[in-house]
Amino acid sequence: MSIDERSKKVVAAFQRYVREHDESLISTFSNEELVRTIQQLGWRDKSAGFRLAIENRINQLKEDESKREEGKVRAWNIFTGLLVAVVAGAILLVLSKQL
Are 10 and 33 in contact (CB under 8 A)? Predict the structure, then answer.
């Protein structure tokens, strides 16, 4: 499988990143682009520094996405808990006035 132009740009950017350690060189690439680049590389350059950097970036993006999802779940749990507390309080208030 040959490498398309976008994947060549990804490889070039990560090669520069390995030399210069400048995050701005790689921050614009999406997880999908990085995965596609790794797939297109196949078995080539398996232990190259840029490839390891790409794989590390993929893992970092996955972790960031997981943290965002966990934050959303946590927010919904808090909202649901507060809603249940308000409803329970309202029910107790109504029941206490009937007595």
Answer: yes
